[in-house]
Amino acid sequence: MTVSYLRLCLSAGLLAGLAACNAPDAPPAPALPSVASTYKLTTADAAFLQQVDEMDQTQLAIATLAATHSNSDVVKAFGSTVQGDYTTNQKAVAKIASDANLTVAAKIDAADQEHVESFSHLYGAAFDRMFLRDIVSIRTSDLSKAIATAQASGGSPDIKTLAKDTDKMLTDHTSRARDLMGDRSIGHHAKHKRSR
After folding, report:
1. Tens-digit pLDDT profile for residues 173-189
2. Alpha carbons 39 and 163: distance in angstroms, whole number
3. CB 68, CB 127: distance < 8 Å
């Protein structure tokens, strides 16, 4: 009888303890930290991200002009490819910046805007020549160094991936632009198109 009574008391005590866990006075469990709030970029990574974002915005604006400023279907198609690649790269930059609570420039600075505008007055073969030369000249020694550094010692895997993807994109664009610069059919095609 006493054993049953003891069991009953223990059971009641356990139930009371469990009920206390769900009591309204109990403090709520702490929220788990979100990835975005704990994701930090090093100063070097943030500077690289800003540099790539500035390049993406500028080159995207220039490549967009190819559709209306070139008379060559080949250059227009290349411009469309360049535009798509920079759009993809810019989305990757925006994602990293958002995850790190970093704000990148909403628009290009005055010097870059002036560079873009220098293309807006050119049409036909003149636009094509300047557009292709610009593609080849994007990879400055400073940019190459920044990309190599980010690939080798970027503080975040996302920065390393961005650097690798940017490097491949620039290599592909430069190679294609050099091919087109040596392609005599572009100028011939533009002249033929205008004579119709």
Report:
1. 999 999 999 865 554 44
2. 18
3. no
